[in-house]
Amino acid sequence: MPADRRAAISMSLGVAAAVALYGISFGALAVASGLDVWQAQVLSLFMFSGGSQFALIGLIAAGAPGITSVLVAGLLGVRNGLYSLRTAPLVGKGFFRRLIAGQLTIDESTAVALAQPTPASSRIGFWVTGIGIYIGWNAMTFLGAILGDALGDVSAFGLDAAAAAAFVGLLWPRLTAREPVVVAVIAAVVTAVAIPFAPTGVPVLLAALAAFAFAVVKERTAK
Q1: Smaller CB count within 10 Å for the chain: N or C?
Q2: DSSP for residue 177
């Protein structure tokens, strides 16, 4: 096997192992927010987006309306659809292949794929990372949910307040360039202004809409 493909597999497995561990936190925090084991598992199976999932359970734990929580999580997941524009050439043809690829298109699978030097190693990076994280994330979600369920009142261990910390942990490594920092500041300002006036969960939704509007304006001005 060529060296570039071996390197792609090695990178993919390393990323998959590291990201999958977050699934334990998600499973435990989902139970802490009021979901049962199977509801937590369904979220990981079908939503499969760490940022969206942590945001959803954080809002649920804060008492936000269900529709608001789902809308915020959905907006955060829009970026995965944009990633598919970059990864589509790597996926190949066929309805089922593209359907599966759509589920596996996340931050990490896209980043690993685009970091590879050749089309072949990019394809390997995408599929190995995506499949590896999907399997690991769901397995760790189940383990975390079972552990959280066994603990009972997880608020006694402080896990009920950890969803926000976990979300920040996912966000912080991305604040390495000017644009993400600007978006984060805009979202923070909108949230702070809206908190005194809006119902629980709505400030976060407004912040997500503001960030999305910023991205649209930037894209149009760049043309």
Answers
A1: C
A2: S
